[in-house]
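Everyone, study these two lines:
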Amino acid sequence: MAARNTQVATVEESSWERVKAAQASKLATLAPPWLIWPIVAGMGHTAHTLWGQAGGQTAAWSAIGLTLGTGVLSGVTWLVSHTRGILGRGSATVTTFATGMWVTSCSVAGIGQPVIGWFLLAGGVVTCAGWNIRTVIRSKHGVSGVVDPLAFLFDQGKGKAGLDGARMATIKAGERKIEAAMALPAGQKTVADVQKKTEHIEGAMGLPPGTLTVSPDTDRADRAKATLSDPRIMREPIPWPGPSRPGGSIAEPLRPGVWQDGDDVEYVIVGHHRQDMGKTGAGKSIGATWNMLAEIVTRTDVAVFAADITKGEQTLGPLRPALHRFETTKQGVRSLINDIHAQLKPRTDWLSARGYVNWEPGCGLTYWVLHLEEFPDIGEALGDAGMETLLKLLKAIRSAGGSVVMSLQRSDWTQMPTIARGQLANMCFGVANSHDAAFGLSEAQEDAGARPELWGSNQPGMAYLDAPGIDPARIAMPLRTFAWLDEHGKPDTAAIAAHAAAWPAEAKTVDEFTAAIARNTTPALTAVHDAPGSSSAEDQDSEEWSPEDDLSTPDPDPSLTADIDDPIEDDPDDQEWEFTPPDPTMTAAEARQTLRERLAEWLDEGRQDFTTADLSDLWTAAGLSRSWARKQIGQLREEGVLAYDDTTQRHLLISRPKAA
């Protein structure tokens, strides 16, 4: 396997040759003032020879004409240098005026006059040296008119990219990347305009696609931050280097891969949920699932619950020893979601009683990571009730100390509830086209020019990541996840299985709530509900149990006995019971109007779907049945107010209903 290469490869295209030429010609930038100096002297001497020696009116008119010309040239210089700073604009104008006045004076008095000669010598040296000093300083600092290889290359191509007036300057140049600042023409271009032009800029500069990443400067709207790195170093798989912080806390960063600029990805999973999306063959299972979980299971204060009812053991099976619970059946995943949800309120109550608003490292509770592989199939298996539970879990588990990760191929509304997608961070691998990319990227990533459709399944492991804690300058920078490949280039299940076996779930000490959910392991249990006078399990098991130990009241009639298999006979004195429905509190017309008002309120709240059962209070209050609700929903679908999602079996809110 190729060794990891973190250095930017040398670009051999003509563009980089031009950069070298610019670097070699730095001394040439100092020469122009000194070359112009003798030319000015010659102009003054020539003017004196033509008009000054004639004396009288000829010399006077020559002086008047040259003075007017000097004024015009000085004004033109001031106007055309408007894009420069006040120092640069003033220097150019003063130099033009001083030069013109010297020529005028020389045309009258001649270059042989001592004063004229002294101004030529002293003034010329000072002026030329001043421009050289300014050129050198500008080449080292600032954005305005920077003379460096990157600025040279950008200036050569910015016109072709439609960015006339923009300037770029190198801020920091390293072995792996170049960090630069870009100044935009104020009021004419925005950072968003530049982000949309990154491909054009790369083409105009002759650079490989994906070289340039542009992000806003939070201090100046007319400036942007640019990072240039060589995308070709990402073409080869990068072997997994081992866990980054074994034995640490889950609150410390995970390292699932390497950014294109050569820096390690550092991603903190605590406090949010994440969506992993990518087409088949894009490396999502190994790149995200294996790398993330391989890091997570090495942390001491976290438990992983997982489910995959589509591929079963194929992806997550090798990690089973390190998982606190792993479900591969529909019934199992429903049970898992319900069990986690049942423990949320006890956990939040426990945290609140100890002064915690959210889960924190060292609070005493184990952090939870719920990983749902091939989520659309899991969502279908959950049904309406199970999906409602999952959505409630998404809202509450973050503060209780947990994150949910959903992995899928295409996160459109038929595969992922929109209310859930809005709460997820984004990790997007290669996709089929730009339309699919919109479901896997955040709006900020799209604006910054992220294009996962360029990879498809041809570069497995390449991804974009936008999550809390990720530098905004990197959300559109490609990363490459580590490759778990054997010597034949195939997924190395033996390696991931060995890693999981080295970090078994049963070796971790977990809290009572985590232990109530965990299966297929017997984790050490930390009591979190210690009560005064309570005894340990060892003490309780030391004595034999008898039924009388659990009785709290005396038997009211010891003469009555029964066996578990004895039939239960009806009491002849019992009367037949009938259900009496409650009296209606609204008419059918009022129920119809209330239904439409409720749908309008849900739209205002941002809710996008619901089930028929959500309307049960309406038909009950009107003394009607479920069939009434179905009829009303059917009418609303005909009006274009509602639609139906066969996958999730939920009614979708499309538009605001009219009054009944």
In short: The radius of gyration is 38 Å. The chain has 21 helices and 18 strands. Confidence is low (pLDDT under 50) at residues 1-20, 140-146, 520-524, 529-545. Residues 96 and 564 are 112 Å apart (CA to CA).
